[in-house]
Request: fold
Amino acid sequence: MSEKRKYKKRYCKYCEAKVDFMDYKDVANIRFSLSERYKIMPRRLTGNCKRHQDMISTVIKRARAAALVPYTVTRKQVVTAPFENLK
Amino acid sequence: MRKYENLVIVKPTLTAEEIQASINAIEEVITSNGGEIAARDTMGMRKLAYPIEKNERGYYHVVYYSVAPAAIAEIERRFRINEDLLRFVTIKYDTNREVAAWNGLVEKANKAPEAPKAEEAPAEEAEATTEAAAE
Reply:
């Protein structure tokens, strides 16, 4: 339920901020569309519009290739330091 | 001429001079293939999100440049041969919107080393707007 409530008000955060281009090196902005385990969050939960979801997905994939964001997080890594890389 | 961006991760096991030398070599590869470097952005030593070749850290360096599209294959081939590099990412800026973003990034990268104080103010504004959006 808490998951649902978190995303109750559905609107595109990126449309609101009038984002035209996303930089894959800017990890703090990508973070919003990633789950705890660094999976790409679905549109139905974040409320992103199609256009921005397409943008964010390419940006996340680039950031993964550049080792800025992990591909997967195992149980061990989740316990130790999931967000250390962002600081 | 098309706008490109290259992010390279240099091995952390090298000394500071060796890292600088390999970055100079990387930029030499770009310029020798007819590229014009517009800006560089040194992100410095960072923790990698996942180990690459058993390295936990890496030295990040970003180069913004414009070059003829045909030269990219050769540049990437040279990068692949280079054993100092853990990883490289080449990004193409093609559409008008992307080129505008590229210009913005170049401006930002050029401004950063000269006036760090001027850089802070817009960053704070950006944070404020994102916070407002979140609310």
In short: Confidence is low (pLDDT under 50) at residues 115-135 of chain B.
